[in-house]
Design brief:
The complex is a heterodimer of chains A (351) and B (337). Chain A has 351 residues and is α+β, with helices and mostly antiparallel strands. Chain A has 11 helices and 11 strands. In chain A, strand 3 and strand 4 (59-63) form a beta hairpin. Chain A is globular and about 65 Å long. Chain B has 337 residues and is of the alpha+beta class. Chain B has helices spanning 71-78, 84-89, 96-125, 128-145, 154-168, 187-190, 206-211, 216-231, 234-253, 260-266, 269-293, 299-312, 325-336, and strands at 2-8, 16-23, 26-31, 36-40, 46-47, 56-59, 65-68, 148-149, 181-185, 194-196, 202-205. In chain B, the strands form 2 sheets. Chain B has a 7-stranded antiparallel β-sheet with strand order 4-3-2-1-7-6-5. The longest helix of chain B is centred in the N-terminal third of the chain and has 30 residues, at 96-125. Classes of the chains: A alpha+beta (351), B alpha+beta (337). The interface between A and B is large, with 86 and 68 residues.
Chain lengths: 351, 337
């Protein structure tokens, strides 16, 4: 499905690197001066900037959580970590109980986190909502990953579909449900392309490495490079093979997911991200940030967001005026803070 | 004074063009027909702080949202608002250079003072059970990847274990979560070597045990060096430093995007190399008094490095995790004096 055949509108992103740099660097300075406390407010400011600059049909997104909510959430999570550590110091077997409990608590926190983020996000003055079933979360984040491990990662597309279904189908915008379903075929095709990249890197790397090791194989070789060679090979494989393969897969999956997502009322979506340009942006962004010691990060963030917005389309089915919020706001913060600290991102249609 | 924009009824996606008017009787939303839609006192309004060029938002007490792209018009109508100073400071002007400088200085201070405190606190919090599990997990991985069961004779193992036990008597038991001493065959690539895991597990290779068969002081020296790594929490500190770095960057700088994210999480090899060279020097220095307390001659450890230099070369290049052997031997002799 190409965007041209339906009345697809491109998502517009109006963020500018210079403007965002100013906000980012002041955020950073205030966060440093306040030993991190301000970072909760900085996060709000960042999300408001990015959401507010993202526009569909003349209507923008907004983020409504307050810095205070996020700070309290972070303090609760840090406090819980400290408490658990101290208690397990006093009563060692407790740590095993905590591990087992974590397996069952994490899916719950993921639901809470998604709900907090959804309820604090609005588009055109209408709030999103998220309502996930706990049993479904257990299946998505516990049983399916176990299946993937047991089948030696050959069932990753099944997990992808399950996770996207869980994330998308439990989201609503002003009471209107999102729905998602897709065949496994395209997902397996994407998986195959990513796997091909991985195999290609392994073969090319193996040939290069083979000749290298052949010339250097000497148990008492006194070149210190030989001692760190296994570590270097592992990192080379991760950064040339595994991470790019993951980006390729994500780019292809994004297109499939958007094409198969419908918002109640017949509103459709499309994504046209292409794996290699996305990989190119990721690589050049990384180089730019490293070479500027981090100062290019705001530019890199704007560039990636703009690329994603430019390749995202929405086809409204009739008027977009009929959405009405269901809920006013969510005061809870713990779920959000948890996802913050753990760096958990279950991905999805978060525009 | 007035400013043009549009208004959304509470929680609805539909909007109508309106004018926000401020007069003696308060603030009013007036529609295109001149009809007054909403009225409120200015102090009852929620006026969002300005961010970049984003449309400004004003929320009325009943939830009606007024939105306008006209920053100057809104300020002229409602007066100066909360957050205007911050917005001004963020403007892309040369004075941001001062902010950059402040950030660099702040990061240097965090690196120098806050990070070690954070890491020490995390080390203090880590329960022994967790350390023992970390050791067991790491050992399992190493056994699968590069280590083979030891082929060392039983009596030789007992001799090494006695050396280890003699040293342990002079180590505070609270500093070690476990006192396991393990023997493994690591093949010719690794050669004579020993390493310690964060919980206190010490592993020595067959090649090392054989090489130092005739020199108990040297072997005790290597064991003392490894125990010093554990009592000084070198491994654990390196682990927490890289985790703390990741969390601090994630919290301060925000989303770093693909690849960079992975580099931050997995790729701080070069950074940890510098750290581990300092850790090696520290462990050498702490090994000397431990050996002396347990009745061994620190000269043994220096002798070990001399012999290592004989077979392996100096090995102290920039990429190495360890300082040069010659330098280490000389430093130990100096400390033992």
């Amino acid at each position: 499905m190409t965007p041209e055949h339906l009345d697809f509108k491109q998502v517009k992103f109006h963020g500018r690197a210079g403007e965002w740099f100013g906000i980012w660097i002041v955020n950073l300075l205030l966060s440093i001066i306040t030993i991190g406390i301000y970072s909760a407010w900085a996060k709000v400011r960042m999300l408001r900037y990015f959401y507010g600059n993202t526009e569909i049909e003349g209507r923008t997104f907004d983020y409504h959580a307050t810095g205070g909510q996020i700070l309290i959430g972070r303090l609760i999570v840090i406090g819980a970590f400290i408490l658990i550590s101290i208690l397990s110091g006093i009563f060692p077997p407790l740590i095993l109980l905590v591990y087992i409990a974590a397996i069952f608590v994490v899916p719950y926190l993921l639901i809470r986190s998604a709900r907090f983020n959804a309820r604090n996000t609005s588009w055109s003055n209408v709030r999103f909502n998220f309502d996930g079933d706990y049993g479904d979360a257990i299946a998505t984040f516990l049983l399916f990953p176990m299946l993937v491990a047991v089948t030696l990662y050959t069932t990753i597309p099944l997990l992808t579909r399950k996770a996207q279904r869980f994330y998308i189908e439990n989201h609503t915008l002003g009471g209107k449900k999102f729905s998602f379903d897709c065949d496994l075929g395209p997902l397996y095709k994407a998986f195959g392309i990513a796997a091909l990249w991985l195999v290609g890197v392994l073969v090319v790397g193996g040939v290069l490495l083979g000749s290298l090791v052949f010339s250097a194989f000497d148990p008492y070789n006194n070149d210190p490079m030989v001692q760190v060679l296994p570590i270097l090979v592992l990192y080379a494989f991760l950064f040339v093979g595994f991470f790019p393969a993951a980006i390729l897969y994500r780019a292809l999956v994004r297109n499939i997911v958007y094409a198969n997502t419908v918002l109640e009322g017949g509103h459709r979506f499309a994504s046209t991200t292409r794996p290699l340009p996305l990989l190119g942006i990721a690589v050049t962004n990384t180089l730019a940030v490293i070479l500027t010691l981090g100062l290019a990060l705001p530019w890199a963030q704007i560039r990636l967001t703009r690329y994603l917005a430019d390749n995202t389309f929405v086809a409204p089915n009739g008027s977009l005026d009929a959405f009405v919020s269901e809920i006013e706001q969510d005061q809870s913060a713990i779920g959000d803070a948890f996802s913050d600290i753990e760096g958990i991102d279950i991905g999805g249609v978060g525009l | 004074m007035e400013v043009a924009g549009r208004a959304f009824p509470p929680g609805r996606s539909v909007s109508v063009p309106v004018t926000l008017r401020h007069d003696d009787e308060g603030v009013h939303l007036v529609d295109v027909d001149g009809e007054v839609w909403r009225s409120a006192e200015v102090e009852d309004l929620v006026i969002d702080p300005p961010i970049g060029r984003l449309e400004r938002k004003v929320t009325f007490p009943d939830g009606v949202l007024f939105q306008t792209p006209d920053h100057e018009g809104l300020q002229a109508t409602l007066g100066p608002v909360r957050g205007a100073a911050l917005h001004g400071a963020e403007a892309f002007r040369p004075r941001l250079l001062a902010v950059i400088f402040g950030c660099v200085a702040g990061i240097a201070l965090i690196w120098r003072f806050a990070l070690p405190v954070l890491v020490a606190f995390a080390v203090w919090l880590t329960p022994d059970t967790m350390l023992r599990q970390m050791d067991a997990g790491t050992l399992l991985t190493l056994d699968q990847l590069m280590l083979e069961p030891s082929e060392l004779p039983e009596d030789r193992r007992a001799e090494v274990t006695d050396l280890h036990a003699a040293l342990l008597e002079h180590v505070d038991p609270d500093d070690l979560a476990t006192t396991d001493l393990l023997f493994r065959d690591a093949g010719p690539q690794v050669g004579p070597n020993a390493f310690a895991l964060p919980g206190g597990t010490v592993v020595i290779t067959d090649a090392l045990a054989k090489m130092l068969e005739d020199d108990p002081d040297a072997l005790a020296g290597v064991l003392a060096h490894e125990l010093a790594h554990v009592t000084e929490d070198h491994g654990l500190k390196a682990l927490y430093r890289s985790i703390a770095l990741y969390v601090v960057i994630a919290l301060l700088a925000g989303d770093t995007g693909p690849i960079l994210d992975e580099i931050l999480l997995e790729g701080n090899v070069l950074l940890s190399l510098q750290g581990s060279r300092d850790a090696e020097r520290d462990a050498d220095a702490k090994a000397v008094p431990l050996m002396q307390a347990a009745g061994f001659d620190p000269e043994g450890l220096a002798r070990f490095f001399d012999r290592l230099q004989g077979i392996m070369g100096d090995g102290g290049g920039w990429s190495s995790t360890h300082p040069g052997s010659g330098e280490r031997a000389a430093r130990i002799r100096e400390l033992a004096r």
